[in-house]
Design goal:
alpha/beta; 6-stranded mixed sheet; 12 helices; 50% helix; elongated
């Protein structure tokens, strides 16, 4: 095996960030593109050092005429490497990026649960992280959206999603594939500019690279990394504030009735606005079926210092918040 600087970097990253344990079962999501081929090659080469049991999963969305051939290509690679292969094919073509992502994670989770894999591993890179930051920034988001694509997060009970390549750019994965002559399957949809992410990748990032910062992808990925730690800290502080305002402890949190709820305004008034907003968002996440919008959060936060008997118009689902003395009552 040829040991490259990229092998060393990924090996160090996995150890320092505690992404994996030794001797675990890893399910690698492989599309056949350069990022996922770089990922599986690195993990196969590092397998002897970690004692992993590796398998490949491929999800066929059926949105391209060559998707079945793509799946066979990945299956043949798995056979040549002596790795177990799992294929999930959509019943109907999936044409929305968001729907495809949701279906893909559900499919991967089902494969992992059925076959006792503790980790699902994807080939998301620093370039993906930079594109996600820009995509969410343009749509309008707080720090949570800007720090999206974290190193790891639980997908379902007992299964962790891990992204080991978040410090590696797409240029690096392309060079790695060329160096090892890995047979990349070119996905034609990556060139389709009807998708916003492709316009960011094909047009915006090159423009920023040429006119502002030649290392813009790494710079944006570093920003996402910094925000990730800050969001984690703020979320915990907001949770503590919310629990104090509700008069509960950690062990009681799951037992709170959804409605009615009473929040102590005196407790909330002592906190900075950033924590007030996050605490209100957490409250709304309990009672709304969809993610609360900026407007929802703002109108609930405004009640912290509003006059007595002030109230909101109904939230989706019909809940109303009203000031009753020192309390915000949601009913």
């Amino acid at each position: 095996m040829v040991w490259t600087p990229l092998h060393a970097k990924i090996h160090r990253t996995m150890r320092s960030r505690h992404l994996f344990e030794r001797n675990q079962r890893l399910l690698i999501a492989v599309s056949g593109g350069q990022d996922s081929l770089c990922l599986i090659k690195l993990l196969l080469d590092l397998q002897s050092k970690w004692g992993w049991n590796l398998a490949i999963a491929h999800c066929d969305h059926r949105w391209r005429s060559d998707s079945e051939a793509n799946a066979h290509h990945v299956e043949n690679l798995a056979k040549s490497w002596g790795v177990s292969f799992y294929l999930e094919t959509a019943n109907e073509p999936i044409n929305s990026e968001a729907a495809a992502r949701d279906w893909r994670y559900q499919a991967l989770s089902a494969i992992a649960q059925a076959n006792n894999y503790q980790y699902i591993v994807t080939g998301h890179t620093a370039s993906d992280r930079a594109e996600t930051l820009l995509y969410n920034l343009i749509r309008g988001t707080g720090a949570d959206g800007l720090q999206a694509l974290t190193w790891q997060r639980p997908l379902t009970t007992g299964i962790m999603l891990v992204r080991p390549l978040l410090e590696i750019t797409r240029t690096q994965t392309e060079q790695f594939c060329q160096d090892f002559q890995l047979p990349i399957w070119e996905d034609s949809t990556n060139q389709d500019l009807q998708y916003a992410r492709n316009r960011i990748r094909q047009e915006l990032i090159p423009y920023l690279r040429d006119n502002f910062n030649p290392k813009v992808e790494s710079a944006l990925a570093q920003t996402a990394e910094l925000l990730q730690a800050e969001v984690q800290y703020l979320e915990k502080a907001a949770q503590e504030l919310r629990e104090e305002a509700l008069g509960i402890g950690d062990e009681e949190d799951s037992l709170i009735p959804l409605l009615p709820l009473r929040l102590n305004r005196r407790v909330l008034q002592k906190a900075p606005l950033a924590l007030q907003r996050r605490a209100m968002r957490q409250v709304l996440q309990q009672i709304l079926t969809d993610a609360p919008s900026f407007e929802h959060i703002e109108k609930l936060t405004a009640l912290i210092i509003a006059p007595n008997r002030s109230q909101t118009d109904p939230f989706p689902g019909g809940a109303i918040a009203q000031v009753e003395g020192d309390w915000i009552c949601l009913k």
